[in-house]
Design brief:
Elements: H1 2-29, H2 39-57, H3 63-94, E1 98-105, E2 110-111, E3 115-127, E4 130-131, E5 137-143, E6 156-166, E7 171-175, E8 181-187, H4 189-205, H5 209-223, H6 231-239, H7 250-266, H8 271-288, H9 293-310, H10 317-331, H11 339-361, H12 366-390, E9 392-393, H13 397-421, H14 426-446, E10 455-456, H15 462-475, H16 482-502, E11 510-513, E12 522-526, E13 529-533, H17 541-548, E14 553-558, H18 564-567, H19 570-576, E15 578-585, H20 595-604, E16 607-611, E17 616-619, E18 622-628, E19 644-649, E20 652-656, H21 662-671, E21 678-680, H22 692-698, E22 702-704, H23 718-726, E23 731-732, H24 734-737, E24 740-744, E25 749-752
Parallel strand pairs: 5-7, 13-14, 14-15, 15-16, 20-21, 21-22, 22-23
Antiparallel strand pairs: 1-3, 1-6, 2-3, 3-4, 3-5, 6-7, 6-8, 9-10, 11-12, 11-24, 12-13, 17-18, 18-19, 19-20, 24-25
Helix pairs in contact: 1-3, 1-10, 2-3, 3-10, 4-5, 4-14, 5-13, 5-14, 7-8, 7-9, 7-13, 8-9, 9-10, 10-11, 11-12, 12-13, 13-14, 15-16, 19-20, 21-22
Length: about 750
């Protein structure tokens, strides 16, 4: 108890300083107006004076002084950067402003929807006559159809004219054409060296397919070049709860430092010399591996700890964590909102504080209990942050990390060894790649069960976030009552899971257009019964929006046709929710685009229903009647053979028309009655859609247009809106109204919002 009390007393000043720094960073990040010019320098001066006085008085320093030091220093730094952040936000909101930037290419190029994309470091950025503070690391996209071999290589320094998209914290520089990019002739050593080492790994692999896959993994694990790993393999690692291994992080830095220390100790080097060597090796490796923020943070913590030991000071590991956090927030206050920063800090602090006591508490040999304690603590600490930032929960992640943990050290060290050896001597590097390949295959097998279930979570309530912050702060203290913080942390997670699992979905019959960024996603619900038609273009977007609706399962998912803006997010829906049936038009079974949907449906046990005009399926309180296309000889044009269904609810019907055009609209209008309460307008409200004949046949009370906020076609067209307005049909669409739809209010169907 005395040791614990002494530890708590020694850490108290750093805890107060770091807490003040975190509060200061949060305050500056929430500022939405430019502060007076005199305020940031004044706060910095106050922070420096408070730090000097606190260090001078040491144990006599009051609590408020340490808090004030961290708060004033970091808030002053953050407010000094606020004008640049607000200016960048205005440029992003404008969408048309052009920025001239000088950028260093960090990685290779990968296909994107509009062209080729990579990552870079911004050296300078200018808008008009003003230099702007763009975050140094950013994404870069060159649109058009440039061939990757014609684009700048990693290490190249380029001048470009671009528009800024994304967010101020994670900008995307969009270059309209490769002609707006000019090479300066400069070449930066480290990105070029990383690229050379990665390609040396591929050369060492030769023509052996298994070795090539191992070389791609080694390039990611040792050098941070995740772009070498195909997207489908990265996705498998993410769904296993192991995505963190593909980013060079504290684990990689720690293993490299441990390996260097062990080799030097075996060779008889003195501890002081070994510490100096590790002190140099860790930052050097972190920089060589791409200077990823997580790796640099881990290297900084290790440097603080080792430097103190070299100076003869006994530094607690938690002290190194707290001091590193304060230094990083002082240098860049905006890190407080960065997911990688939060995960690194919380997981590292949790491991330092709770792995030793949990190892002691578990029954068995120390090496076994320690192996169990690490993934349990790390995953428990990371769970709410992953749910908050990525809206994901992988129930099997703890088990996957536990089973994979013994294999991780040889995989990472084998990858580093292969990267070091490959430029000098290829045969031994090839043997190292063989070892990496075998071990990676084993990791894939032991983590396969975790991929069976991936949940998409709703947003965390602000109250829950506040409870978790308070519980986490208490749990990391070196006090006996820290256990109460752990219990509160776990209890809050359990309560959130229970509320999420058992909260009832909306009861009134509802037809809702989910505001996916591009494409269409329509949710029809009646009490516990819900059907979703299409899922937008992007992989996770519709799943996240569906999680917010309160539904945990779906009676059916309908794929209207194969266009990416309708089925791009459907695989994630099938993976993350309890879906009873997958409904597709019969003609679609012969298309390659349907294969991922069928595979996901089979894995989750969803029944597959090919349908055509005349088909009818009862799904609880929802009945689906297929109106189009015919079973025999459907139209050849993709849009014209889209699936059209009537969703018959207890109080009215909804007609969901997908992407049919005017010719099909006229055929349907002549084929029979189509009356509906809610019409989901065809083809996102394009100019040729919603003909008078269709409106005559349907006579809707409400019209909903699946025109996404970021659609590039300008949907819905003004002529469509005018046709609906002339008939006094209330209209809603996400590009204007956000999340919108129509619901039964007990007497009639009314639009919302």
């Amino acid at each position: 108890m005395r040791d614990g009390a002494a530890t708590a007393r020694s850490l108290r000043p750093l805890w107060l300083l770091t807490t003040g720094a975190a509060i200061g960073a949060l305050c500056s990040s929430l500022t939405t107006v430019e502060p007076p010019r005199w305020l940031p320098p004044l706060l910095l001066l106050v922070g420096v004076l408070a730090t000097v006085l606190a260090l001078r008085w040491r144990r006599r320093a009051r609590t408020e002084l340490w808090l004030l030091a961290g708060l004033a220093l970091v808030c002053g730094r953050g407010l000094g950067q606020t004008p640049d952040v607000l200016y960048l936000q205005r440029l992003i909101a404008d969408g048309e402003s052009t920025v001239r930037a000088e950028v260093v290419i960090l990685e290779g190029w990968a296909d994107s929807r509009w062209g080729q994309r990579t990552r870079g470091v911004v050296l300078t950025a200018v808008h008009g006559d003003r230099a702007i503070g763009v975050p140094r690391r950013c994404r870069l996209e060159i649109r058009g159809s440039p061939h990757p071999t014609a684009l700048p290589k990693p290490g190249a320094v380029i001048d470009l004219l671009a528009r800024v998209r994304g967010s101020a914290g994670s900008p995307l520089l969009v270059v309209a054409s490769n002609r707006l990019v000019k090479a300066t002739g400069e070449r930066r050593l480290l990105p070029a060296l990383r690229d050379r080492l990665a390609h040396d790994l591929l050369r060492a692999a030769g023509t052996n397919a298994d070795r090539i896959r191992s070389a791609e993994m080694a390039a990611a694990l040792a050098l941070g070049r995740r772009d070498f790993v195909p997207p489908e393999r990265r996705e498998r690692w993410r769904r296993s709860g192991l995505a963190h291994l593909l980013a060079v992080s504290g684990l990689h830095v720690g293993l490299v430092g441990g390996a260097v220390w062990l080799l030097l100790a075996l060779s008889g080097v003195s501890p002081t010399t070994a510490r100096i060597a590790v002190l140099v090796a860790l930052p050097a490796y972190a920089v060589l591996a791409g200077a990823a923020p997580s790796a640099m943070r881990a290297a900084l913590m290790a440097v603080i700890y080792l430097a103190a030991r070299l100076l003869g000071r006994a530094v607690l590991p938690m002290a190194a964590v707290l001091l590193a956090v304060t230094i990083l927030l002082t240098a860049q206050p905006s890190l407080i909102a960065n997911a990688g920063f939060q995960l690194t800090v919380v997981i590292t602090a949790a491991l330092v504080r709770w792995v030793p006591p949990l190892t002691e508490a578990l029954f068995g040999p120390r090496w076994v209990t320690g192996t169990v304690a690490v993934p349990v603590v790390a995953q428990t600490a990371a769970a709410p942050l992953v749910a908050w930032h990525f809206r994901t929960a992988i129930p099997g992640a703890i088990v996957a990390n536990l089973l994979a943990l013994p294999l991780l050290a040889p995989i990472i060290l084998g990858s580093v060894a292969a990267a070091v050896i490959a430029p000098l001597w290829r045969p031994p590097a090839a043997l190292a790649l063989d070892l990496v390949g075998v071990l990676v295959s084993l990791v894939g097998r032991v983590s396969a069960p975790a991929r069976a279930i991936e949940l998409v979570t709703p947003p965390l309530p602000i109250v829950a976030i506040a409870l978790l912050v308070a519980a986490g702060w208490i749990a990391l203290q070196a006090r006996p009552w820290a256990r109460l913080g752990v219990m509160a942390w776990i209890g809050t997670l359990a309560l959130l899971a229970a509320l999420w699992a058992f909260s009832p979905p909306p009861a009134p019959p509802t037809v809702e257009i989910l505001p996916v960024s591009d494409g269409a996603a329509v949710l029809v619900s009646s009490g516990d019964d819900a059907v979703m038609s299409d899922a937008g273009r992007y992989r996770r977007e519709a799943a996240q929006l569906l999680a917010e609706s309160g539904h945990r399962g779906l009676r059916a998912v309908i794929a209207s046709h194969t266009d990416e803006d309708h089925v791009g997010g459907m695989v994630q829906i099938l993976r993350s929710f309890d879906v009873e049936r997958l409904i597709v038009p019969a003609w679609m079974l012969g298309q390659p685009q349907v294969v991922p949907l069928l595979r996901a449906a089979h894995r989750r046990g969803a029944r597959i229903h090919p349908v055509a005009a005349g088909s009818a399926i009862s799904l609880g309180t929802v009945r689906l009647e297929v109106v189009w296309p015919p079973a025999m000889d459907p139209p050849r044009l993709e849009n014209e053979r889209s699936l059209v269904v009537r969703a018959v609810l207890a109080r009215g019907t909804a007609l969901i028309t997908a992407d049919i055009g005017r010719p099909t609209e006229k055929r349907l209008a002549r084929s029979g009655p189509l009356q509906c309460a809610v019409l989901v307008v065809p083809h996102h409200g394009g100019r040729g859609s919603t003909s008078p004949s269709l409106l005559d046949a349907t006579a809707p009370e409400v019209a909903l247009i699946p025109a996404a906020p970021d659609n590039t076609h300008g949907h819905p067209h003004s002529e469509v809106l005018e046709r609906l307005a002339r008939r006094d049909i209330p209209t809603r669409y996400p590009a204007r109204d956000g999340r919108c739809g129509a619901r039964w209010n007990g007497e009639e169907w009314v639009p919302f919002p």
